[in-house]
Amino acid sequence: MREGAAADAREWSEHEVQALWFAGGFGKNFTTSDGRAISVVQFGVWNREAGPDFAEAAVSLDGGAAQRGSIELDMEAADWERHGHATNDDYDGVVLHVFTQRGPREFFTRTSQHRSVPQVQLDLRAIEEPPNAQPDAKPGRCVAPLRALPLEKVREVLLGAAQFRMKRKSAALARLAELHGPDESLYQALATTLGYKANKLPFTLLAQRLPLKLLRAAKDSATALLFGVAGFLDQRELAPFDSPTRAFLRGLWEQWWPRRAEFGRLALPRELWKMSGQRPMNHPQRRLAALAQIVRHWPHIRALRDGCVPEATTEFFNGLRDEYWEHHYTVTSKPSASRMALVGESRVTEMLANVFFPIAISHDAAGSARWEEFTKLAAPLTNRRTETAALRLFGDSPPDAKFLRSAAIQQGLLQIYEDFCQRDASDCEQCLFPSQLAKW
Ligand code: SF4
């Protein structure tokens, strides 16, 4: 730690400093601003969504046990306060705050729970060249043993993990069905899948607070109830919106306002929704419109569950029509000239992998035939966690191009990632997965 780095820091962008940090360019042993020794045990993964810069990192203070958590890197210490991190619970898990300039006043990093976060100031003066672009995560210790296995064995390992995951999903859905019945549980599970990943909780709460039975009885008002209870209809001023949006919102408001006394107390607080860091196609308002369509076409959804045929499911969701959402990402975005599917290919695959197949496999006497069908389900590699898991396990050379474009292989990767990578705080050193592979 050195004072006086301010003059040099101006020549660097925050992204350059972050990339150099992640590449280990500043080392891994530091002294905190209050004089304690701190080591970065693992640098974690780049977080491309809302929240701290690096997730799944681990640090050790004064030689103590590694603590898992996130790392936030700012150019100036007080950016923590300026950017609202001190009151944002996304930052409650930060275990280290790194910055390049201390600023004119002493600054203590605190979370919304008033926990003090260790601070480290970086010295940019010793660094000559900004680094090249870095990957989102580092390959782990299991890359070599996985590479040494024949491809069929690697596939076996991943499918074994995927089958374990499928059994857990089937059991969870069966429990839900016991509590709420087969239709309500299916509706709740689909809502949760639409909320994945940042808005799982508000979508689950919405489906619990506005049951399928109630929405089906509400007929044409179902969309207005969903948007009203979601808290998306609290703005009465229509002037800032384009004409299709004004017409769309006016229609919803006319149905929502007479019922808000009845349902207003169920409305979700705005802060429950994560709007930033989302791809426009995944905006929760679009996903909510998709949930409204699912309710509207319920008999068809029930038939899709009973049949569990991927082609029929894809065809149904591709054919969904919504005049407004086909040309708007959100209510505040400019209209798009080209048509956008309300539910894209990757979302349909998520529904198949997380809801339709787990239900079908648990119900079907021919469960093993269903499992075989599932292993043939192709899936685009669009999920950031799966990409990170692939990078950690296979480095920059996965077995072959087609290998990862499989829903079952991706589910297996996620299971291993959750069971091993997300529990590891030793930078792979104490992870048992490589030794388990050796016994395979
Ligand atoms: S933590 Fe384990 S499974 Fe994850 S990358 Fe490291 S060695 Fe592989």
Structure description:
This protein is α/β, with parallel strands linked by helices and 440 residues long. It has two domains: 6-121, no CATH class; 147-375, no CATH class. 46% of the residues lie in helices and 9% in strands. It is built from 19 helices and seven strands. It has helices spanning 6-9, 14-22, 79-82, 143-148, 151-180, 182-195, 200-209, 212-218, 222-229, 243-256, 260-263, 284-296, 298-307, 310-318, 345-363, 367-375, 384-394, 407-419, 433-439, and strands at 29-31, 37-42, 45-46, 54-61, 67-76, 94-101, 119-121. Strands 1, 2, 3, 4, 5, 6 and 7 form a seven-stranded mixed beta sheet that branches. β5, α3 (79-82) and β6 (94-101) form a beta-alpha-beta unit. The longest helix has 30 residues, at 151-180. The radius of gyration is 24 Å and the shape is globular. Residues 1-10 have low confidence and may be disordered. The structure holds iron/sulfur cluster. The site of iron/sulfur cluster has 13 residues, from α17 and α19.
Question: Which ligands accompany this protein?
Answer: iron/sulfur cluster
Order of SSEs? HHEEEEEHEEHHHHHHHHHHHHHHHH
What is the residue-averaged pLDDT? Answer: 89
Counted by DSSP, the helix tally is 19
Give the overall form: globular
User: What percent of residues are in strands?
Assistant: 5-15%
Class of secondary structure makeup: alpha/beta
Q: How can the largest sheet be summarized? A: 7 strands, mixed
What does the oligomeric state look like here?
A: single chain
Radius of gyration: 24 Å
User: How many domains, in number, for the residues?
Assistant: 2
**Topology, number of strands:** 7
Distance between the termini: 46 Å
Low-confidence stretches: 1-10
The helix content, as a percent range, equals 40-55%
